[in-house]
Amino acid sequence: MAALSGYPSGETGLATEELEIELLLEALFQRYGFDYRDYDRQAIRRRLYALMRARGLATVSRLQDRVLHEPGASDALLRALAVPPATLFDDPEQARQLRIVLASCLRASAVPKIWLAECGGAEEAWSLAIMLAEEQLHTRTDIYATAANEQMLDEARNARISLERMEQCKENYRASGGTGNLDDYFEIEDGHAVLASSLRNRINWAQYNLVTDASFNEFQLIVCRRALPDFGPVLRRRVLRLFHESLARFGVLGIDREFDEGDAFGENYQAVFSHQGWYKRVA
User: Fold this and answer.
1) Where is each CheR-type methyltransferase domain found (predicted)?
2) Is the pLDDT of residue 23 over 90?
């Protein structure tokens, strides 16, 4: 990816840019406690470029100056680096697979727990809650939806969907295998749709940092499909170890892609679907 116009051309410019990215990520960690230093550098660069273009900044150093000195700039950076928000049933194929997983892996548990690690916002959790209701599992299943960014958690707790957008959500819902009436799972508040309180109450929102925090519970299902693609190799191994420590035996792990040969604990899992990144822990 070519450097922005504020850098000299060639290897010197790329080296300068890489150094500035390192310094920005270190500053973000030291000043605000958010650690993106082991994220995939290309993913970081793409998101920094988008933010810099939006703010008319030619170099990463200028962005760092804003982040350290300008009110609100750090929030904008953290939002740019965070997992992109999901929309209701926005990946129908993955939702169909998740329906099968829910039916097969949770029924044997008296009080199953699901962890949406680095959740993509309210609508990802709402989609799961609706699928649990359709499998008659919602009254005894707890969803733990976590994210590192407290601001995004606040938005998730207070999320709403416009009635106009609900029409597209209904199409995605039907494509995902939904056979009911999507409206039945929602309440109308001030002209917007909000997930019914009986389902919202099963979702536990909490701040949690996959980079630094330890295992906090045992789960029958862990899903982390949106954040893992952004992790560098060292961080990916660390997070897969964390998931292994947090997943009950015969629980299911949903990740972004198939295990690589070098992935931590990969030999302890059995594929649920071919080439899809869903695995049952067997050891």
Assistant:
1) 9-253
2) yes
The tens digit of pLDDT for each residue in 25-60 reads: 999 999 999 999 999 999 999 999 999 999 999 999
Of 46, 81, 116, the last residue of a domain is 81
pLDDT at residue 10 in the model: 60
Task: Provide the H-helix boundaries in 70-196.
Answer: 73-81, 92-105, 122-134, 150-157, 163-175
- Are 188 and 165 part of one and the same domain? yes
The alpha helices in 33-91, defined as continuous H runs, are 41-55, 60-69, 73-81
Contact 150, 207 (CB under 8 A): yes
Q: Which domain holds residue 62?
A: 10-81
Residue 175, C-beta contacts closer than 8 angstroms, at least 6 positions apart: 89, 92
What is the rounded CA–CA span in Å between residue 252 and residue 244? 10
pTM of this structure:
0.93
